Amino acid sequence: MTEIEKKLENNGIRPTAMRILIYKFMAQKEVAIALTDIEDAFVKAERTTLYRTLKTFEDKGIVHHIDDGTGISKYALCEQGCNCELDQDLHLHFHCSNCDKTVCLTDHKIPHINLPDGYIAEDANLVITGICEKCSGH
Amino acid sequence: MTEIEKKLENNGIRPTAMRILIYKFMAQKEVAIALTDIEDAFVKAERTTLYRTLKTFEDKGIVHHIDDGTGISKYALCEQGCNCELDQDLHLHFHCSNCDKTVCLTDHKIPHINLPDGYIAEDANLVITGICEKCSGH
DNA sequence: CATTAAATGCACTTCCGTTGCATTCTTTAT
DNA sequence: ATAAAGAATGCAACGGAAGTGCATTTAATG
């Protein structure tokens, strides 16, 4: 049994062929993945299957959902110790307006905000849009 | 000529009856407005007209577009001196998960973030989700 | 009043997310 | 090993919201 299969099983996900392929695909990408990206990479697979695979990954906590403001849901593998489901890993996301790629800046946590009286924060989403290091030429 | 008509004309917007009504509607609301909200309020009007009115307001800079993460575009009147089009008024937005309303916290600017080398910020969006003061009972 | 430009109304399209249900595959118990 | 049960997959279709093209109406201008 491979590392990936273990990872899936440890999180209560049956390690089917499709799921392993999708996990590998996401692992080798350093950017957030949209459903369409996976569709393009696995043309033989059904959109629904890919869709539900992402949902399963998210529900089981090995992937987190990213809203980068483009209107297209993206996903990224959670890093070791990511507690995104507990709202304890509120790192920010960077969306490049040039190449349209979105990356997790996991080292950059969202700063604490003092809200007005009566407001109770439960979650936060911070997206910086601009030019990524690749497009800016470092 | 009313204040609203002046306001519209000063921003290069022809003050038609519809536009004045929509402006008034937005002015009396203290929360961000979705297209559907305006549809519900003006059932006699065409969706497209309302849609394009919001677009016009946004283009002319008297309204700013809000992405609160719900997937539904919302809009709010710019306050005096709002420079949202210049990315100088990056206040944060609060979305209530209970009543589904979104408000501008104009006094709460998005803190400056030090990005990794090579990343160039052009815009930022910070949305805090939680319970608003009305739903929390102050 | 005639001409021109802008605003509006209507119909339609696209995109993405989502669901229902039948079918296939995998696991588990006998 | 095989049958039964449960989960995953494939297929078809729906739904909401944003957006566009074009004809028509309304408002501004000379």
Summary of the model, kept short:
The structure is a homodimer of 138-residue chains. Chain A is an alpha+beta fold and 138 residues long.
The biggest sheet of chain A, with number of strands, parallel, antiparallel or mixed sense and barrel status, is: 3 strands, antiparallel
Low-confidence stretches of chain A: none
Calculate Rg of chain A over CA atoms.
16 Å
Strand order of the largest sheet of chain A: 1-3-2
Number of strands of chain A: 6
Order of SSEs of chain A: HHEHHEEEEEH
Cofactor (chains A, B): Zn(2+)
Pfam families (chains A, B): FUR (PF01475)
GO molecular function (chains A, B): DNA-binding transcription factor activity; transcription cis-regulatory region binding; zinc ion binding
Protein name (chains A, B): Fur family ferric uptake transcriptional regulator
Please describe what this structure looks like.
Two copies of one chain form a homodimer. Helices cover 32% and strands 28% of the residues of chain A. The first copy, chain A, is globular and about 50 Å long. Chain A starts with a helix and ends with a helix. Chain A has a three-stranded antiparallel sheet with strand order 1-3-2. A three-stranded mixed sheet of chain A has the order 5-4-6. Chain A has a single domain, classed as Arc Repressor Mutant, subunit A, CATH 1.10.10.10. Chain A has helices at 3-10, 17-28, 35-41, 47-59, 133-136, and strands spanning 33-34, 63-67, 73-77, 91-96, 102-109, 120-131. With 138 residues, the first copy, chain A, is α+β, with helices and mostly antiparallel strands. In chain A, a hairpin with a 5-residue loop joins strand 2 and strand 3. At the A-B interface, strand 6 and helix 5 of A face strand 6 and helix 5 of B. Chain B binds a DNA duplex (30 and 30 nucleotides) through residues 14, 16, 18-19, 35-36, 45-49, 51-53, 56, 71-73.
